[in-house]
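step=encode ok
step=design start
structure_in=
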C-alpha cells in the first residue's frame, strides 16, 4: 500500500507509524516509528523489547497517549493528562498541553489508544487542534 494508492491526507508532512499489538499471552507492545526509520520488524520469536512497552498505561482505559514519535520521553507521560482524557474525553494536540515536544521541529499528531472491552480504538488530532475519544 502506498500514498499513490490512497492519497496523502497531510501532504508535505513527515508521518509516523504506530502499531499496538500483542502476540498470544505476551505483554502488549506499541511500535512507534517515523517514516524515515527504515525497515521495521515485528517478530513473535524475539523477546519483548522494553522500548515497545515503555509508553503504555496498563491500569487505565487509556492504553497510550502518543505525541509525535515520543522523542526524549522515558515513560508514558503525565498521568494527569491521562485522567483528563478519561474524564473529559478531550485532548489537546499541543506541546503546551502535553508538557513536552514529542518530535521537535515537526508538525505532528497526537494519537490516543483506548481500551474498549476486548478491543482498542485509536483517536488522533493534528497539532494545534482538539481531539475527542468516544
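sequence_out=
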Amino acid at each position: 500500500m502506498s500514498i499513490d494508492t490512497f492519497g496523502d491526507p497531510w501532504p508535505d508532512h513527515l508521518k509516523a507509524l504506530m502499531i499496538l499489538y500483542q502476540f498470544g499471552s505476551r505483554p502488549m507492545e506499541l511500535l512507534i516509528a517515523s517514516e524515515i526509520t527504515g525497515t521495521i520488524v515485528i517478530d513473535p520469536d524475539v523477546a519483548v523489547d522494553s522500548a515497545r512497552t515503555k509508553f503504555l498505561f496498563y491500569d487505565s482505559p487509556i492504553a497510550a497517549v502518543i505525541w509525535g514519535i515520543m522523542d526524549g520521553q522515558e515513560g508514558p507521560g503525565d498521568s494527569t493528562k491521562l485522567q483528563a482524557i478519561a474524564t473529559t474525553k478531550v485532548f489537546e494536540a499541543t506541546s503546551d498541553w502535553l508538557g513536552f515536544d514529542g518530535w521537535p521541529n515537526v508538525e505532528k499528531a497526537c494519537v490516543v489508544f483506548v481500551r474498549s472491552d476486548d478491543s482498542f480504538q485509536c483517536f488522533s488530532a493534528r497539532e494545534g487542534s482538539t481531539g475527542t475519544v468516544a
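step=design ok
step=annotate ok -> The longest strand covers residues 109-116.
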